[in-house]
Design brief:
about 70 residues; mainly alpha; 4 helices
């Protein structure tokens, strides 16, 4: 059976999403996997925040985001 490029891309995207959900990996954390070493431009406090963020599960990250959005208003 021959598959189109779009079918293959969708299958790969669906598989990555499924694996991330099973392992409780956020979209942000997955994007960091593909990012090329841009951490050198961050301050030490920003690196600390990212380190803490990466250790949170999806529910904890959403709680933190809610708190941050509340502070912004």
């Amino acid at each position: 059976m021959k598959y189109s490029h779009l079918q293959i891309e969708k299958h790969i995207a669906d598989k990555i999403t499924s694996l991330c959900e099973k392992r409780d990996i956020s979209k942000y954390r997955l994007s960091q996997f593909f990012q090329e070493g841009n951490l050198e431009n961050l301050t030490e406090k920003q690196k600390e925040v990212l380190g803490i963020w990466n250790d949170l599960n999806a529910n904890e990250q959403e709680t933190v985001m809610s708190m941050l959005r509340g502070l912004r208003k």
